[in-house]
Here is the input.
Amino acid sequence: MSGAPPTLGLMSENAEPPLPLPAAGPTRSTVRSLLRLRSYAHPIRWYLIGAVLAALVASAAVLVVPLVLGRIVDGPIGHHDQHALWPLIGLLLLLGAAEAGLFGLRRVLIARPLAKVEAAMRRDLYAKLQRLPVSFHDRWPSGQLLSRATSDMYTLRLFLAFPLVFLIVNSLMFLAGSALMLTLDWRLGLIALIPAIPLVLLCVHFETRYSAAARLAQDQNGDLATVLEESVLGIRILKSFGRRRSMARRFAEQAERLRGTELRKARMLADLWALIVGLPEAALGTSLAVGAVLVAHDELSTGTLVAFLSTALALRWPVESLGWLLAYSNEAGTAADRFFDVMDTVEEVPLAATDAAPNGDGIRFTGVRFRYPDAPAGSPDLLRGIDLHIRHGETVALVGATGSGKTTLTALLPRLYETTAGSITLDGQDITRLPLPRLREIVAVAFEDPTLFSASVRENVLMGAPEATPELLERALAVAQAGFVGQLPQGADTEVGEQGLSLSGGQRQRLALARAVVGDPDFLVLDDPLSALDVHTEALVEQALREVLTGTTALVVAHRPSTVLLADRVAVLVEGRILAVDTHQRLLENCPEYRELMSGESALEASVTR
Amino acid sequence: MTVLAPEEELPVLADEEIPVPPGAPTALLRSLLAPHRGRVLGAMLMILLQQAALQSGPLLVALAMDQGIPALRRHDSGPLIAVTAGYLGCAALSTLLQRAFIRLTGRLNQDVLLDLRTRIFRHAQRLGLDFHERYTSGRIISRGTSDVDALRELLNEGLQELLAVLLSVCYIAVILLVMDWRLGLLALSSVLPMALLVRMFRRRSSRVYRTSRTAVASVIVRFTETMNGIRPVQAFRREQANLDAFDEANRQYATANANGLLEMARYVGFSRAAANLWVTLVVLVGAYLVTDGSLEVGVLTGFVLYLRRLYDPIDQLAMFLNSYQSAAAALEKIAGLLAHEPSVAEPSAPLPLPPTSATGRTVAFTDTAFAYRTGKVVLPAFSLTLPAGRTTAIVGATGAGKSTLAKLLARFYDPTQGQVTLDGVDLRELSTTELRRGIVMVTQESFLFSGTVAENIAIGRPDASRAEIEAAAKAIGAHDFITALPDGYDTDVRKRGGRISAGQRQLVAFARALLADPAVLILDEATSSLDIPGEQAVQRAMRTVLAGRTAVIIAHRLSTVEIADRVLVMESGRIIEDGTPAELIAGSGSFATLHTAWRESLV
Here is the structure.
């Protein structure tokens, strides 16, 4: 099962929200948001319908009970007829059993299906987030995403389990009860029902205000999760500067803000509850007085009054429940909005696959320009027309000042970001016309910041080539000088990453390098692959890498001469363009910018000393 | 080459949980509620009155029927008016009390949650680095998010429900006994099966909920790991494998959820059945009593109305139990985290540092050793003095123990033997504030917090002025790239964090350390991602900055070593060479070999 297709539905105006902000615009409505859940509810519709039916019949049984009681009072008790009592008692017993059984059945019916729906939604969200481009993740704090995957999903499941069913059941029960009361005595019925009109109006008014607050609270919850997450991920910095108090203050401020919103919600709820409890009680008191007068004037039997009052009391729960049903539905509506905020994000539509056969042209950048989607207007592009050709089997080092866009350039190759203009071809095939999995299969990257996943060392390395043999794994580990793997508790099967052993920066970098080279990729991108290695290891890795790089088309981001020497030629990136491409030696002689980058001497100093 | 031992050989803690001291969850709950004792009492009082007002309804109905109607027939409308007025008064009272109660408990709940969230946050910050290295970030996050949510659910819905339920049961019990003790006793005997059902439910569901809390934590761990590493995930087509792993965790969570719901269904079904059985019994017996003439019809009516109310809370009770079980499981996890003592404890009576001399502070390791909890020795006992104002470089292969030594000095870990002193004061005797003012460590990973670049630098000294922040950035050569960012120093790094390169992040980290102006500065491979001009700018800055400071530089680049007064070469946790750079280069040790190799690699 795949995620919901990029919907161009009701929320399309929010397809790419600049930031997850409260979206309580005039066009949103709780009902509409909740209706969008139907694609998830559809597979379990029979269970849901069954649950509603079970609850309906059970509630009907509840409504019939007062009638039977009235009959008992007017009949067997009034006439002292004990024989007539037994069938009625039997009926009462039957009704009770039916009610209990059906209410139980309602819950049994939906237990597993609902848990599955929740899981399916969470899975779709996760899958969607994995597909969304890196630029999306740059914009969304991960705490906000996390709170969507946990708290919001829980809210939605609970909505399907109770409020949805009971909104239907209780409305119907209310209607049936009202009809019953009107039939028993229309005057009393009217008195009891009149408060329903202001109640409904007030509830509608409440809905709009409450859902705005609910959305705000959910978003603030997400912000709180983000601060918590950052404080854990940045723990070393906070500790080394002794800044845990100021971070705690920041957390406390956010938490205070959330508290404020929650209090506003509580105040609204308190008002709503007062209305929902107060109005019907007042009506009931009035009808009691009127009913008593009617009975005294013999216009009404005692049994009917008992039945009427029992019915009115039995309807208290459906009416009272309205308060939290509405509140809950509102929360669920905003939770659904938050879910669809992400799900509606438009995904890149793949272009028709290329039919050009690979022609051994290597990597070719033509007029590549790039700016980040959210870069401020008026700022120059980061990359302003990159033209670079890396011949088949050639290794080119990319050199440039810190922040000149080297890493960004490497991210364009596996299409982690999309070029703003220009084209990149691999062996003559435009990368935008290669299916993404295929593209990422032939391009292997070792990132500057080596991330390992919660999996064994073996899995982490073989991620680059799932079908690789054990020999290839050995070779890749050898290239990366990752001999330490053999010393780990379970060797290559040792779990690393978040849920396993934490490795040092140098060790992680070597595994990331092994991952990049294991599949013998056609195109290799190494982003400063040796930065975290000590001199000794660096020399060994270089030696081994040199062999791998022969015959591989590779782009290597380099900061220092030792890494540059891995390459056949060097490209110098200055102000968003490739200033020069040549061998290391010739560039040193002819390119002052390069000399400065490699030796640290400023161009001026160099020309003076020469 | 020597085979290197992993630097961090720590026990894998994948499914292991921190032990929860017995009674900790209850103690936690009590300590959370204790400051609000007054309000808790107030709330209880309110609900007491509110329930009294609410529960008088059927009693008044019975009165209206047994007294009001006959009186009216005698053309005496007094009793009926009185009863009606009473009914309306009670309705108004219960309404107002309900409103006040919700407001009061809302405030109470939010204060408790705020307290709890802050405690979790502060405690997570206090815990030692060794803990954070073992206990994954995702699990701490899940303690502070989904576990707190579970408790919120309990406080928001559950507690109020429970109070109302308990009180209404008590009231109704009393009223029933007063109305007719025979029927009353019969009705109350239903408490027995009800209690049995609740017990059964609790026993069965607590197991389910514990599983569910663990399962959700594992979902969160998977989730955060993917989102924080989205670049490699996509580049290595890890999506499917991730999805499979996530599916597995997600499925377990779903199963636990479904089991919880099924337990609840069982409980509700059986309780409802028992309740209905009792109602029927009461009606049957009541009918006989009425025909005997020993019971009024009105009393029976009131009785049955009350009886239905007595069992009304079954669903509420189920919901309460549900959120209670889930919150109890969550509370247990939170209590476990909060009860975990930081391995690096704050001293109860901190000592002050002597005033700083012009040359910084002296650091001394005395017979210091460090081993992991598994017993594996990382640093065998050694003694070392780093005189004030000197810059010492530590070199050695990965895993030689350089970082561990630095972490001991920064008091990220405490030594297992011996001591580390700063100007003669044991680090363990210093308050955190004093310690962090004295010693700052810059590591190679340079995490940026959300906020602006200026705010990130100001972490070094929160009260620094903008001019001071800029001065620090200029000193380290970060000013140019920062001013080139869209909003300069006010650029939000989280929004554009991906754009700030690793090298630039390291410069920000440096500026932060400069701003902090510590007496002792530790640089742990802090220049690894800088390019040569960047590194040289940093080194130039260091020459001035390090004057009057004690510095420890861990580097694998020998260029960094050149600014040091002294070099230590480490291997397998031992210092094997010690001298000035010139001495060591001139010698024939491993540093000399390394240096030659490095020279050759240069242009």
The longest strand of chain B covers residues 377-386. Residues 406 and 522 of chain B are 7 Å apart (CA to CA). The radius of gyration of chain B is 35 Å.
